[in-house]
Design brief:
- This protein starts with a helix and ends with a helix.
- Helix content is 44%, strand content 15%.
- By secondary structure, the chain is of the alpha+beta class.
- A three-stranded antiparallel β-sheet has the order 1-2-3, covered by helices on one side.
């Protein structure tokens, strides 16, 4: 419907657009990870084509909005999230599921003395 409304020449699915853009700008790649506001998509590539595809199916678990909110709570810029998380010696195991439960885990892990680096590392692993 949108294609007809805006009279576009083509209609490309989001994941295919990601693949085309990534291979155009970065050449031969193995993985594309799209951390969106509501979900996470991971495309596994082989020889310039999508070999496998994964989509998060957890309620807000590991998506962009949750990671942004947690980074803000810890005073970390979202552009520094990965570097901060990679500084962790270990990562607490958060519950899978709703962001409300993840926040409860966060509070409990903070009480246990986990560092912000460890907390951000654990949160980044939730969606897997």
């Amino acid at each position: 419907m949108l294609e007809k409304t805006v009279k576009s020449d083509v209609n490309i699915v989001e994941t295919v657009a990601h693949m085309m853009s990534a291979t155009t700008y970065f050449g031969e790649i193995d993985v594309i990870c799209d951390i969106g506001g509501q979900d996470i998509k991971v495309l596994f590539m082989q020889n310039g084509d999508i070999k496998n595809f994964r989509l998060s199916n957890q309620c807000s678990a590991g998506n962009g909005m949750l990671l942004q909110a947690m980074a803000d709570q810890f005073g970390v810029k979202i552009t520094e999230y990965a570097d901060t998380a990679f500084g962790a010696d270990l990562a607490p195991k958060f519950s899978y599921g709703c962001a409300v439960f993840l926040d409860t885990d966060r509070v409990n892990f903070q009480k246990e003395g986990f560092s912000k680096e460890e907390m951000l590392a654990g949160l980044a692993q939730v969606w897997r």
